[in-house]
Sequence to fold (792 residues):
Amino acid sequence: MPIKKSELYSSIWKSCDELRGGMDASQYKDYVLTLLFVKYVSDKYAGDPDALIEVPSGGSFSDMVAAKGSKEIGDRINKIIGKLADANGLKGVIDLADFNDEDKLGRGQEMVDRLTNLITIFENPALDFSKNRAEGDDLLGDAYEYLMRHFATESGKSKGQFYTPAEVSRAMAKVVGINQDTRQDQTLYDPTCGSGSLLLKASDEAPRGLTIYGQEKDNATAGLAKMNMILHDKPTAEIWKDNTLTAPHFKQDGGILLTVDFAVANPPFSDKAWSNGLDPLNDEFRRFEDGIPPAKNGDYAYLLHLLKSIKSTGKGAIILPHGVLFRGNAEAEIRKRLIRRGVIKGIIGLPANLFYGTGIPACIIVLDKELASSRQGIFMIDASKGFMKDGNKNRLRYQDIRKIVDVFNNKIEIPKYSRLIPLGEIESNDFNLNIPRYIDAGDEEDLQDIEAHLLGGIPERDIESLAAYWQICPTLKSELFTPANRPGYLQLKIDPKEIKNTVFQHREFVAFTEQVKDRFLGWQAASTPILKDLKLGDKPKALIESISEDLLIRFSDVPLVDKYDVYQHLMSYWSDIMQDDVYMIVSDGWRATDIGKPNVDLIPAQLIINRYFRSEAEAVERLEADREAVAREIDEMVEENSGEDSLLEEARNDKGKITKASIKARLAAIKHDWDAKEERKVLNEYLKLIEKESAAGRKAKDAQRSLDGKVRALYARLSEEEVQSLVVDDKWMATLESDIKTEIDRITQALTDRTKQLAERYAQPLPALADEAENLRMKVDEHLNKMGFVWT
Fold:
């Protein structure tokens, strides 16, 4: 059976363990990824005369296998890689890591063992990359992406800049308009492409493909980018190694810069050396006509290069620190000219700590020349609060990406999240584009009501802030609250402990929960046949895109429920479990066994038990409960006879334990001791309990073994239809239905918590508290007087 995605990733990551210690992640990534590349192209292209990559004799992974254990293994690997590089014009691309470097890989036998073990990991038959790609889904490319993210995480602040998080890359691609309609002859360019992750995620949005150009000044990173392109089946992508600002490579007739349809970039933030070797005043490519950036800050230099590199109908997106939105002097003048030209289409503020080279918050600036002359405003999004923690970094969730893209592309204005800012308003703010000037994303202050604290009652304005609930449950408010003794204030009508039950059982809320359930059931009814119809060779990514889109549409107008929260449940489950299942199915079919063994990854044994052997499982549980009951009796007896004078104390063995053997030994020792009559009684009772527990345990184990045998036997007899039902109905849909229920619970809990908070906040007005404090003071004085203290 083909290896699961998650296992593929972890297997390759394990290879890094062989290299840790001699070098840091920014270095050992070059070794692991080079070996991954050789293994992949050997599996994919060796022996194919029509392949885009030639695998020459003496230049394949099998030649590396033959070198295992050799004293010259490092040198032999270098020569193997050299032959592969020479055959494909990849000199200076895939041969940068020195596998014979004793300082990094160890000397003598240490190097031999380390490299031999490294090759052995990739030699695993399960890592046959020729068989691990479903059409249209890049299993190995995704593994490469996984490794790059982990390398970036381990590389530290100054060395992780070769990688742009895939989530940010996908969002950028979608907001510049790369989609299923993008033509193959359209062009995509990244002037600071790093390892190529941003280029690849952008190109993934164009199913028919497009023409790719990338430039990267770091030698090793440019090599990674070229390998990355080949691993993603894009060997024709042009990657050039040089400094984009001082020596841009891609040009057209007349020596002017090549202009493209789409450009994306994540340049080094605030590059202090951007102008080294460059005369901006006399730039032959006229990139700085809107102004010359500060000599020690290159943020706008990269933006202006990107802008110059897109066609008159082109679109671009660049990641830059927030400072570009509001800094003054030369940057302020550039910003003003760009705004007046109308080339800035939008700005998306991102969460802090997303990127591996820095922890500062950044933004995506979206450029669009096509409609620049008629642009009347700039669309802004403050997406700074939408993320999840991932180790020591933040990371955009599926729902965050989708919301950003939907809102930006459709220019949906959402309070505290997004706005179309008129140019006049921007001009009145002196062309400052700092997002908080235009979007107040802060949480509303929970104001305390002084009058309510003095006189009691809950302010009606606080109750009305829950208007979304009262709209779907018009009579619920009157079930919870009643007018107080003065206008503008209410009081809780029921005991605070009854709030949750009142909400849950209210007929209008019940009707609402049924509405949510019906939406899910509708999606389930539409998706189940699609899922059960999965066949060999189907495309998992197309599948999840289809069913997730349908889920979003069905929940788009359900009150109180955020459709993006529902979408996140599906996408998280897809990422954690369902994706691996689907890849197994499209690679190997609906099989309950693999080489005669139960396929517990696809069908966990508990699913079999729940559907076919519930009564047997309940019998095991009862027997286990009987054993636990006896175990509790034993514990109670020990507790009753604890202490130095315990009748059980002398029955402990050398390890301080009371066992069947130690009790029998003690009984033998006191057999003829008349004074030990009571001790013998207790020991015999304890011995009976031990034997009773042992017998109960044997019964439970026998029943469990019998159940396990029935489950194993059934795996081999399951039909394809039964496998589909177990996986789709009992596993996938049951989990997702439970997730939807958690959304309802969360909504209910939010109303319950806020209602209780307000009721408790104003439960005792200040005069009542003062009276209570006075009563307590008088009681204290009375007690002090009784004890002879005079308190004044």
Notes: The radius of gyration is 35 Å. Residues 218 and 333 are 31 Å apart (CA to CA). The longest strand covers residues 310-321. Residues 132-137 have pLDDT under 50 and may be disordered.
